[in-house]
Amino acid sequence: MSSKTIVVAHLFPELLNLYGDSGNMLCFKKRMEWRGIQVEIREVHPGDTPSFNDVDIAFIGGGSDREQKIVCDKLLSVGNEITSFVEDGGVLMAVCGGYQLLGHSYLMGNEEIRGLSLVDLYTDHGDPRLIGNIVVDSPLCDHKVVGYENHAGRTHLGEGVTPFGKVVYGHGNDGNTGYEGVLYKNVIGTYIHGPLLPKNPGIADYAISHALERATGKSYLEPLDDTAELLANNTMVKRLLAGEVEEA
Ligand code: GLN
User: Fold this and answer.
1) DSSP helix/strand/coil, 243
2) Which of 106, 104, 109, 91 shows the shortest CA–CA distance to 206?
């Protein structure tokens, strides 16, 4: 394999890490190591001034409204860098609170948090919170995407903006449109915690192969034995669709 080290920047792990989102880092690390790809997980803390020059994948997890308020200024202070990274094809994955901050704004009652405006979307608050298991059909992988959502936010995509997938079970962006998340260039925004990647190896590999292609010109990934992961994924999907899981 290549001698290039794939750098994964984990933004503000101490603030944005709901429902095991940091497990996505372990998944990136192991799936690259198992293939002999050198990988560095680089934590970016609120006091740091991150540079995205040598970053291949950036990850922003979910957080409470309070935590989002704390990080939004930090994110905006490097907004131009993140925009250049994204426009240059950098892989950016953002979950729930992180996803909401990719858009223009997040409106909580009278209070508005400004977002990065990387993607044409905005989020406002609704009642009740949208909580529970979720299953999505996404064009990014050939298995269903399964996970967990818990958000008051209702995210509205701009005209012509592509969602991450179609909701098969659960709520998604706003509980009405039947769409979940967003796709833009190599940006994936989603409400899916779980954590997302260990439960959905196809999504992990989609992100890794795109990062590898940008870094080395080659996107090929050695197949891994995902028997256990796919069995767990499929079992959960079947149980949910059969109505066997009682939601809170
Ligand atoms: N605070 C946001 C909301 O409730 C995001 C929550 C989350 O990341 N799970 O909509």
Assistant:
1) coil
2) 91
Among 104, 151, 193, 210, the one annotated catalytic:
193
Determine whether the shortest distance from the Cβ of 83 to ligand 1 is under 6 A. no
Strands (E), 90-248: 91-95, 105-108, 111-114, 121-137, 145-157, 165-169, 179-180, 182-184, 187-190
Q: pTM for the whole thing?
A: 0.97
Please pick, among 96, 104, 143, 210, the residue that the annotation labels catalytic.
96
Q: Is the CB of residue 152 below 6 angstroms from any atom belonging to ligand 1?
A: yes
**Does 72 participate in catalysis according to the annotation?**
no
Going along the chain from its start, the domains and CATH numbers come out as 6-241 (3.40.50.880)
Q: Residue 20: left (phi > 0), alpha (psi -120 to 50), or beta? A: left
- What are the pLDDT tens digits along the chain (248 aa)? 457 999 999 999 999 999 999 999 999 999 999 999 999 999 999 889 889 999 999 999 999 999 999 999 999 999 999 999 999 999 999 999 999 999 999 999 899 999 999 999 999 999 999 999 999 999 999 999 999 999 999 999 999 999 999 999 999 999 999 999 999 999 999 999 999 999 999 999 999 999 999 999 999 999 999 999 999 999 999 999 999 999 97
Distance CA 38, CA 77 (A): 30
- Does residue 96 have its Cβ closer than 6 Å to ligand 1? yes
Tokens 């050695």 identify what position? 222
Structure tokens at 226: 């995902």
